[in-house]
Specification:
Blueprint lengths: L3 H4 L5 E4 L9 H13 L7 H7 L4 H12 L6 H15 L9 H10 L4 E5 L3 H10 L1 H4 L4 E4 L14 H8 L9 E4 L14
Parallel strand pairs: 1-2, 1-4, 2-3
Helix pairs in contact: 2-5, 4-5
């Protein structure tokens, strides 16, 4: 009989998604998206949310414009309106229960960590400023919004491969990625 210990490889590095996994920001995004979309006479439904969650922000907004038939808006215009609300509200976002404990545990055991996020870089900067101590434990953060090496947005795994490649000495494949994916997206379950 094979023991559980023999079934798993040791993890040498961890990569985390940020919104909804580490940071309890999903409600803030939902309220901001809902408020802006309501200005155009449309409703940000759960169905719409599930179609765009985790994607690059402008890709999400293109999808929403088509799906909800939003007239008179471009992805860039919606992005600016949503960002204005988010810049105020994201400051209140807290870490999810247990997230800080896990991060501190991994740091104490010298497991290098990074973040791979589809969030707007402005939101990442605000969160980093609000949670300096915890964010300082991460080796690096890859933001698909501004990173030219991330060719395809989520649900494609490109951001995770770019993030993994930025650890020093490009470590062996015992890197574990934590990703919060919507039900229609296959989970990233293998080591990168």
């Amino acid at each position: 009989m094979t023991s559980a210990k023999n079934q798993f490889k040791p993890v040498t590095h961890c990569i985390f998604d940020m919104d909804g996994l580490l940071i309890d920001s999903e409600k803030i995004y939902r309220v901001a998206f809902s408020a802006v979309i309501a200005r155009y006479g449309r409703v940000y439904t759960n169905e719409a949310k599930m179609k765009v969650i985790g994607k690059h922000p402008l890709d999400s907004l293109r999808t929403l414009i088509d799906l909800l038939k939003i007239k008179g808006a471009t992805p860039e215009k919606l992005a600016e309106e949503i960002k204005e609300l988010m810049k105020v509200w994201i400051k209140d976002a807290k870490f999810k229960p247990g997230a800080k404990k896990l991060i501190r545990h991994l740091a104490a055991h010298k497991i290098p960590m990074a973040i791979a996020t589809s969030a707007w870089v402005e939101m990442v900067d605000i969160l980093r400023a609000c949670h300096r101590k915890t964010f300082s434990l991460f080796h690096h953060i890859v933001v698909s919004d501004t990173d030219p090496e991330v060719a395809r947005s989520k649900p494609a795994p490109d951001i995770f491969f770019v993030c993994a490649s930025r650890f020093p000495k490009n470590p062996p494949p015992e890197r574990l990625a934590f990703e919060m994916a919507p039900p229609h997206v296959p989970p990233l379950i293998r080591l990168l």
